[in-house]
Structure formats: structure tokens, C-alpha cells
Amino acid sequence: MVGGCGDDGGGTTDGSTTIPDAGPGETLFYVASVLGVGQADPTGDPSIVPGFNLDSLVSDASDPAGCLHADFTSPSPDNEPGVDNQLGPILSSVGSSIDVEGSLSENILDGSLLLLFEVERVNDRVNDPEVGLNIFIGQMPAGVDAPADADGDGLIDSDQTFDINPSSLVGGEPLVSVSGSIINGRVHAGPVDIEINLPVAGGLLLNIRDAEVRLSIAGDTISAGIIGGALDVDETVATIVAIDPDAIPESLARSVLEAQADLVPDAAGACTAVSVGLTFDGIAAVRGVTGM
After folding, report:
1. Exposed (0-12), middle (13-18) or buried (19+): which is 267, by Cβ within 10 Å?
2. How far apart (Å, rounded) are the C-alpha atoms in residues 2 and 99?
3. Strands 221-232, 204-218: parallel, antiparallel or unpaired by DSSP?
4. If pLDDT is split at 50, 70 and 90, which confidence band does 9 have?
5. Alpha-carbon distance values, 153 to 29, 114, 160, 210, 225 (Å)
6. pLDDT tens-digit map of 56-87
7. Which residues contact 114 (CB under 8 A, 6 or more apart)?
8. Phi, psi of 260 (to 5 degrees)
9. Residue 105 in contact with residue 66, Cβ under 8 Å?
10. How confident is the model at residue 263 (pLDDT cuts 50, 70, 90)?
């Protein structure tokens, strides 16, 4: 499931946001072929973690403004200092017992996790000051059985048709829709609230607040995609406990998340949200109809 709302601008109203009208341009449509949970650099540098500087600070582990959590630097092409992404380390610690990213790859092919990206009003794929980004959850078209076709690397193949899950629309318009720009071939969009239901460990609903989105366009692919924002601790604790209350006590879930919280300090200075940075690559797809 994906849900959310975008920023306000001026122009055409879609029910969740107002996006400037920059002329027709072309519309590009992609399906995520790879999804990641934003873990540290696989080459071994723990200071390189995907995400964004969400609090406009560059803090270390002694800085109370960041709730005593050291920031990271994002990988190329952004190379941004002050990156906030505390969920990645949490899931890295879980990775020894649960292959989170392997499960996500399986979910993509079996059609249970089809994340669709639509970049519209594109007049220049290299530098364009005004584009729109819509994000949908997709589904296999009626009469088409999963799994989706895979390429030689076992990833979802290009130019397949995927329908739009009706939960991704409100009044017939995209629920997650936000304005942005293209800078040196890279889409920058946000902030926008995004709900993503990851079908791992029984289902993990991430309600990402004030998310920023970036992705690089090259031919029929998108790469180095990042969705970064904040997860409210109370809300996320409830989501985790709902998976299996017997296996995951609320006290345990709360202690882990509160220990990693690094955003949205309350009046007492305690952070109430955990930063997250999900990663993705994608391949060109064909937009189908709205499913049932």
C-alpha cells in the first residue's frame, strides 16, 4: 500500500496536492526492480549510508540536537553530509536472521510489492525546473498470473504492463503526487507523506513523513533511487507490535526505536521520530488501468 499527500504549489489540483502546470512534456513510467532498506555501504564503510539530511544539521554522537546519533554521508551521486537514516542500522542487525532485501526481491517478482513511479511533464531529461512525480502501488493486470517476467539477472523485466492499485488513488487522482525538478539527470521531489507496506516478517507498514525522493533517469532505467523521511516512534511501535504481539512485546519495540530516534525533538528534547532511507532501482514499464 502507498498513501500520502504532497506539497502545495499552484496549478492543477489532484485531490492531495497542487502541482504547477509546466506544459505537457512526456510521461515516464517505471517499476521498482530492486528495493533496499538503506543499509550501510556494502563495501564496508559504515559512514556511507543512503538518505537525506532531514534536520539540516551535521551532527555527531555528542550532539544533543541529533539525539546523540552521528549523521552519515550518502553514497554517489549525492555525496550529501549530515544524512539521517537510523532505520538502516536497525534492519542491518535483523539481517543476520531475516534476509530482508532478499524477501523484497521475491515480493517484487510475485507481484505483492510493485512500486510504480511516474515522472510527468518532462520537457528535458537532463535539466528540467518543473516536473511531477506520482508514486503508486501496482498489481498484476486482470488475467495475468504472477510471477512477473524476469530478466537474466532474476530481476523484473522491462516493458511489462502493471495496473494501478485503487488504494493509490483518491478521486481518481494519485494519492502520492508531488512537484519536483530534474538536475543533471536526477529527479528531486518532495516533501510528501508516503505509506509503504513491506510484506516482510508478516507485513511492516512504514508511514514516512515529509519524505524526499530522488532518482536518476538513464534511458529505460532509473537508479540510485532514495525515499527518505521520518517515522513517528509511537505509530511505528504500534505497527511492529501488530505483526505478532506475542513475539514482539511493545516494551521491546519501543526501547529499540526510542534508542534510535533522531528527529522531531519534543519540548524536553527527546526525539520522537526515527529517520529512514529506502533505496530502489527501476525499469521502464507500461501503465495499465486502475485495478479492482
Report:
1. exposed
2. 23
3. antiparallel
4. very low
5. 21, 18, 16, 34, 19
6. 999 999 998 889 999 999 999 999 999 999 98
7. 31, 32, 108, 137, 138, 139, 140, 148, 162
8. -100, -10
9. no
10. very high
